Amino acid sequence: RLKVMPYYSDSEGPLCINDNAFELAGEFIPDGERLFTQLSRYDDYLVDVVVRPDYQAGDTLRLVLPFMLAAGVTDQALREYSASSVVWVSGAPEALRQIQELMPLFIITTSYEQFAHTIYRDLVPREHIYCTRLPVDKYRLSLAEAKRLKGLGREIVSLPAFPSPAEIIALRKAAERLNSIIWEELPKLECAGKLLEQIKVMGGERKAEAIAGSLQALGKDVSSAVFVGDSITDVEAFKLVRSGGGLALAFNGNTYALAAAEFACISHGAAKMVKIASVFADRKFAGLKRVIEAAPECGVRLITPINREQLEAESQRMRKLLRGDKAGNLG
């Protein structure tokens, strides 16, 4: 019996253990993992420290694109690599099928379309997938621009490791040069400038906007929504759903996710998501809170100021176990 109560889920983290953009960078760009990590930490800096206008969490996926293009990536290469590299959270495909028997299911992910549309092709209706549109083949680099981008990429890699915001002196040194590269030099390059201007990453506010727009199309309010996420790109969606009375659930969430969500689930498999969706579909919060109180072994916990630090430690261990130290530590 289909219930018109939508279930929204992030992709990377709750459903698969990939960090696809990080993996693509490592596959196609020389020293790409280091480059992506530098840009990802710079992303956190812009969001948390600078609060740069018109910049949103997750835009690392936009910043890294010129360097991918300089490495010669194509739409076909991105799709083929994405199809061959996906690693599901245990039981995730079957969980998705079961959830769809209960309610409409939507994927809202920062991931590039080449990853999202490929891995969910036989699992979720295409129109229910919100992701980062990337018509990569329409962008053409000149040889001179490709050479310049490769040089800038090497420079970013050679900068001191981008630190935590607390290490402010080193942070400023790296940030000043990245500010110059990202916001002054790249926009002056013909193709790279177009990429940075035109690509809109499905993260931050856009995830919240996607949920709001989808709910409006369904004729439902936020109180009927479930959103499952795990990282900084999900914070605005968590805030929207939580403030409207829906279910905001961090699945193996990092610090940002656990600060914004209301509930947490730490698990090596996705089967628990089916139980949570079923409980929420039957009685929403009242039912879920009773399950938490009566059956703590279900793995869902209410996030409180008292237990948040413990949840962060447990969740971080699970993230590293499933995704490895490099991807597990990204925001």
Key features of this structure:
331 residues, alpha/beta, 9% strand, globular
Structural commentary:
By secondary structure, the protein is α/β, with parallel strands linked by helices. Helices cover about 55% and strands about 10% of the residues. The protein contains 15 helices and seven strands. A seven-stranded mixed β-sheet has the order 3-2-1-4-5-6-7, with helices on both faces. α7 (about 115-120) links the parallel β2 and β3 (about 130). α1 (about 20-30) crosses α2 (about 30-50) and α11 crosses α12 (about 235-245). It is globular. The mean pLDDT is about 90.
**Count of separate DSSP helical elements:** 15
Intertermini distance? 38 Å
Arrangement of strands in the largest sheet: 3-2-1-4-5-6-7
**% residues in beta strands:** 5-15%
Kindly state the percentage of residues in helix. 55-70%
Structural class from helices and strands? alpha/beta
Unreliably modeled segments: none
Q: In sequence order, what are the helices and strands, one letter per element?
A: EHHHHHHEHEHHHHEHEHEHEH
Give the overall pLDDT as a whole number.
88
Brief summary of the model shown:
This protein has 331 residues and is of the alpha/beta class. The protein is 56% helix and 9% strand.
Produce the secondary structure layout.
Layout: E1 7-9, H1 20-28, H2 32-50, H3 60-63, H4 65-70, H5 75-85, H6 92-102, E2 105-112, H7 113-119, E3 129-132, H8 143-158, H9 168-185, H10 190-198, H11 205-218, E4 226-229, H12 235-243, E5 247-251, H13 255-260, E6 263-265, H14 271-294, E7 300-302, H15 308-328
Helix pairs in contact: 1-2, 2-8, 5-7, 6-14, 11-12
